[in-house]
Amino acid sequence: MSHETAASEASAAPASADPAVQRPVPFRGGGFVHRPLGSVAPVVFLAILALWEIGARSGFISPIALPAPSEAFGALVDLATTGMLWKHLGASLYRLVVGWTLGSLLGIAFGLAIGLFSLARSGLLPLVSALFPVPKIALLPLFIIWFGIGEGSKVATILFGTFFPTVIATYAGVDNVDRNLIRMGQSFGLSWLSIVRKIIVPGAMPAILSGFRISASIAIVLLVAAEMIGAEFGIGAYILMAGALFALDQLIAGVALLSVLGLCISWLIGRAEKRLLSWRS
Amino acid sequence: MYRFSRRTFGALVLAGAVAAGTGAQAADKINVGILSLASHSPSIIAEAKGYFAEQDLEVAFVSFQAAQPMAVAIASGDVDFGMTAISGGLISLADKGVIKVIGGALQETPEIEGQKILVSKAAHDAGVTTPAALKGRSFGITTTGSSFHYMAHKIADKEGFARSEIQVKPLQKVPAVIAALKSGQIDAWSIVPNIASGLTKGPEVVEIGKVSDYIDNYQVTTVFTSTANVADKPDLVKRFLAGLSKGIADYNAALVDKSMSEEDTAAIVAMIHKYIYADQPLDKADPRIRAGAMRINESAALSLASVEDQLEWFKSEGLVPEGVTMEKLVDTSFVETR
């Protein structure tokens, strides 16, 4: 009971005060919102680099454990001045673009089929689940026989690596499309194709695009594996060569190139998200 | 029921620690890196016959898939001794002052069958019947700066065409090179005789020459250890090499010179089989271990001329820093050099 009296007194108190001097109610919402702090990321990055450089120069970090960032940068400059950088980048980008595009297109096609047709779902989903966890690297000797040691096996490795996550992202996206929207389309008498084109595909698009982020990163990871087989040029081949020669500065330079590649691809997918998902705003 | 009290637990831990402590005093524990290749047998024989125990060494074997990780493990101190081909990675680590070559192992000698140059059937049909015809052909290697890379370029040098005319294809692992050669994806390869003989039995691969025609006294593999061991424990290194030398003598007598009795040879093959071709039954592995054994230098003697030639090749290809010298790479104080 005391609760109620206390509450009624509390609610009565403002009412009893003079209505003319109304206290402004402070806005207590907000918070838990991220502010973009553009300058923090570069500062953190530079601080880590500086610490690393100091550690390497002072001998705290042994040269066989990690080379100084300046040495890795020197290796990058060497790459650029000899013109090898473009040869390596060109070869790797070709493999990435072809392998990822084919893998994603096939993945979306299979994912949509699994999402839309019961027959495809029953037949293909177990197959996808069975083949997804197979490490593509373990199949490299077979890929040599199937696709040759030319571009075929490299593109195939990336294609297989990106295909499965795309399938799963796509059918999960289709499954998560709001059923009410589909029913609304049906009650408006839209044809099956219209519903797929105007409701299901746009509705699944956010999931497909976040699937792209994952599959693009997997493609970059697999680049090193793909370029294990008979690759003369390519960032992966460069990293493998640096590892075999224990040239750590080149190794770090190659890894940094892959990171930059990952950032660029992530930025491109961000642009695609803005464009393709503009209907959401 | 017996209750495991904290006090008995403490007593047990203490007893265990004391036992471990006294064990370490009795013999020096060392880790030896091996690859599953017949050329690594001497350490296995030395361990099985107790030659390391005679030197007060307790040996544990650590298996590796390739030479490069073994070199890195020695640099990090996880492994004490190893035996592999001189690779770019090994020289880079020597340049950083962490590992040293201390002896020689496998060497090409004129009287013993050595490494073979192989071509695929397709290339053979297309006219690659001598190594001279390898100009413009592809050649399988494991990694840039591996012994295969060196051999390919030495063939080019001696046959008088530019090194760039022979296209080397890095395929990372020996099984991948075998797959590529068998299916005709690459034209040529060179490999030790016991693998070569297995390949040339099939119709897909043809032998066209010998590596020893192109490289004089090729020191294929060397024994190496960390610089820390050389500097701080020279006695340990000497004892390891003494034990290893006895293993080498037995290996040569049993499998290369075949001067040992059949009974003793079979015993040695059985010892080797514990680590090499262990996934096959002994009667199947036996001929594979015996086939094409190559001579391992008595007392781990080292051919400096060959090592120097290899170092010069690495430098000329820009695969190792310019500043590496023989002094940085090799410590000649432990074994006889020639």
Automatic annotation (TrEMBL), chain A:
Domain ABC transmembrane type-1 per the UniProt entry, residue ranges: 89-269
Family matches, as PROSITE patterns: ABC_TM1 (PS50928)
GO biological-process terms attached to the record: alkanesulfonate transmembrane transport
Keywords: Cell membrane, Membrane, Transmembrane, Transmembrane helix, Transport
Transmembrane annotation, as ranges: 32-52, 92-117, 124-149, 155-174, 218-245, 251-270
InterPro entries: MetI-like (IPR000515), MetI-like_sf (IPR035906)
Subcellular locations according to the entry: Cell membrane
UniProt KW Repressor keyword: no
UniProt membrane topology term: Multi-pass membrane protein
A Gene Ontology term for the protein's cellular component: plasma membrane
Domain of life: Bacteria
Summary of the function given for this chain in its UniProt record: Probably part of an ABC transporter complex. Probably responsible for the translocation of the substrate across the membrane.
Similarity comment: Belongs to the binding-protein-dependent transport system permease family.
Protein name in UniProt: Aliphatic sulfonates transport permease protein SsuC
Species in which this protein is naturally found: Nitratireductor pacificus pht-3B
TrEMBL record, chain B:
Regions annotated as coiled coil: none
Annotated signal peptide: 1-26
Keyword Signal: yes
Location, primary (coarse class): periplasm
Compartmental location: Periplasm
GO biological process: one example: alkanesulfonate transmembrane transport
Similarity comment: family membership: Belongs to the bacterial solute-binding protein SsuA/TauA family.
Name assigned to this protein: Putative aliphatic sulfonates-binding protein
